[in-house]
């Protein structure tokens, strides 16, 4: 599986901060040509790379979802961001640069302001929950769905 490198201050994969719309569209066309799977929409990569532009029409924000792990190993400094448990990933990145502990979304979102890097998940789920009665009483399909929240669902960078 190919790597998709997350580089705060620079970009994610071939999409870089500061690029024009046309440059981003060319990158997305390259991803589509190289990685598109028949079971996925023709416009899949257009929808999974969330790119926001500033007033000069230059990229200032890039976000990717965990669904890209079907195509790439999404990594930040050698850490697979979608296959490393959230608590472990936060602890490792926190050693590099502290996250904003005052953010009201801590647990769901971790922002590392000095890096311009954020991780997000829709629910907080911890390893110890696996042994709790309320969890064990759930249907196995629901348990599997809940376990997904041990990991982050998206990562973003911004200028």
Explain what this protein looks like in three dimensions.
It is a single chain. By secondary structure, this protein is an alpha+beta fold. It has one domain (2-124, 152-158). Helices cover 27% and strands 26% of the residues. The protein contains 5 helices and 10 strands, in the order βββααββββαββααβ. The chain has helices at 21-35, 44-48, 86-96, 133-136, 140-147, and strands at 2-7, 11-12, 15-16, 50-53, 59-65, 72-76, 79-80, 109-112, 117-120, 154-158. The strands form 2 sheets. Strands 3-2-1-6-7 form a 5-stranded mixed beta sheet. Strands 4-5-10-9-8 form a 5-stranded antiparallel beta sheet. Strand 6 and strand 7 form a beta hairpin. The longest helix is centred in the N-terminal third of the chain and has 15 residues, at 21-35. It starts with a strand and ends with a strand. The model has no long low-confidence stretch (mean pLDDT 94).
């Amino acid at each position: 599986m190919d790597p998709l490198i997350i580089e705060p201050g620079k970009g994610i994969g071939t999409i870089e901060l500061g690029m024009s719309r046309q440059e981003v569209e060319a990158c997305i066309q390259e991803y589509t040509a190289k990685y598109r799977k028949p079971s996925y929409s023709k416009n899949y990569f257009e929808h999974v790379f969330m790119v926001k532009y500033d007033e000069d029409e230059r990229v200032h924000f890039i976000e990717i979802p965990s669904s890209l792990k079907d195509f790439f190993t999404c990594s930040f400094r050698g850490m697979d961001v979608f296959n490393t448990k959230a608590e472990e990933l936060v602890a490792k990145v926190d050693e590099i640069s502290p996250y904003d502990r005052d953010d009201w979304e801590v647990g769901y979102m971790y922002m590392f302001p000095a890096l311009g890097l954020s991780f997000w998940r829709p629910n907080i789920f911890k390893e110890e929950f696996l042994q709790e009665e309320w969890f064990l009483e759930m249907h196995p399909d629901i348990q599997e769905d809940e376990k997904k929240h041990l990991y982050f669902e998206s990562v973003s960078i911004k200028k």
